[in-house]
Write a structure and sequence with these properties.
The protein is of the alpha/beta class. 19% of the residues lie in helices and 29% in strands. It has helices at residues 33-43, 61-69, 84-91, 114-123, 192-202, 222-234; strands at 2-7, 27-28, 31-32, 48-53, 73-78, 101-105, 108-110, 128-134, 142-143, 156-157, 168-176, 207-211, 216-218, 250-252, 257-258, 263-269, 274-275, 279-285, 290-291, 296-298, 301-302, 307-308, 313-315, 318-319, 324-325. Helix 2 (61-69) links the parallel strand 4 (48-53) and strand 5. Helix 3 (84-91) crosses helix 5. The longest helix has 13 residues, at 222-234. The relative contact order is 0.13.
Length: 329
């Protein structure tokens, strides 16, 4: 089975971190997010992958090489201008064979059992299947009501609080039959969520959905990106990138320097990070960040090469690459 990974978005919700890199290359426990998707595919026997790229596409070269080292055959499509989620899938039609295919929104972190989703799809002779995930507040999302057998009834976008018929939302993981791609116009901006799926419901197509309780996170905002890293450190998202998950866990890249009197807990430290006698808690520091003496970094995401000067604070903030934070006063 082949898997298509949507990696063409601009990542506007993750700015300023995505001014210089695609969001799919931001690290979860010091590994590019897309490599965690590769891990999931390899564990579940998928060997062929297509990256659907657009924004900063050349930046994926190291990840593609890494995928090959993991045993994946990685192909790439490119859109000069983003074509939307469905348009990007259509753009890869020449690489799709006659078998069903997996499709991933590239900003989703999950450990779902893909074999169960594929089995559900096949048992119902579905043309398309959507993985659903429960959320506490469905009013912030689009919910997907279904028949008892899983057939999708429709889509309700951001229902008022307390009115949603379900708390299950689109998890951004799909199984498609190749015929689905024939329903998408070529060379047009086309959305799977807002155009393709509603069209399938209207036409009475065999569109099904399966709810699950696997770990799931949309890393598309700085807050969720940080939360995903903290989940990896705590062991809520299981990855070999964290050797000893648990309370206070720290993942440190190559060449990290930490002063012996520094306090560092629940943190991901990119390669070459330097921490003087300072405090770093519940934070992600990308490669080359520097935290000066007496500084405090808490609940923060620091871009590459950020300098938090002596005595300065970076609390509940996201800082662009190479910014300098000075002490107040």
């Amino acid at each position: 089975m082949k898997a298509l990974i949507l990696t063409g978005g601009f990542g506007t919700r993750l700015r300023p971190l995505t001014h210089t890199r695609p969001k799919h290359l931001l690290p979860i426990a010091n590994r590019p997010h897309v490599e965690h998707v590769f891990d999931l595919l390899v564990r579940q026997g998928v060997s062929d992958v297509v990256l659907l790229t657009s924004y900063l596409a050349k930046a994926f070269a190291p990840a593609i090489e890494r995928g090959g080292q993991m045993g994946l055959h990685v192909e790439v499509t490119h859109e000069e201008e983003p074509l939307g989620t469905a348009g990007a899938i259509k753009n890869a039609q020449s690489l799709v064979g006659e078998e069903a295919l997996l499709v991933f929104n590239g900003d989703i972190l999950t450990d779902v059992d893909l074999s169960k989703v594929v089995e559900w799809h096949r048992r119902r002779a579905a043309e398309a299947t959507i993985l659903l995930t429960p959320v506490e507040d469905p009013s912030a999302f689009g919910v997907v009501p279904t028949e008892p057998d899983g057939r999708v009834l429709g889509f309700i976008e951001k229902p008022p609080a307390g009115t949603a018929p379900t708390n299950l939302i689109n998890a951004g993981v799909y199984v498609f039959e190749p015929s689905i791609l024939d329903r998408i116009p070529a060379d047009e901006v086309w959305s799977a969520e807002h155009q393709l799926f509603p069209q399938l419901v209207e036409e009475g197509a065999a569109l099904y959905a399966l709810g699950g309780d696997a770990y799931w996170m949309d890393i598309g905002t700085p807050q969720k990106f940080l939360e995903a890293n903290l989940d990896a450190l705590a062991g809520r998202f299981v990855t070999e990138a964290v050797g000893e998950p648990g309370v206070g866990a720290v993942v440190a890249g190559e060449g990290v320097e930490i002063h012996p009197d520094a306090v560092v807990t629940d943190a991901c430290l990119g390669a070459g990070t330097r921490i003087f006698e300072a405090r770093v808690e519940r934070s992600v520091l990308l490669p080359g960040a520097v935290v000066g003496e007496g500084a405090v970094v808490r609940g923060a995401v620091l871009g590459e090469g950020v300098v938090v000067e002596a005595g300065a604070e970076a609390v509940d903030v996201t800082v662009a690459d190479h910014e300098v934070l000075a002490a107040s006063g």
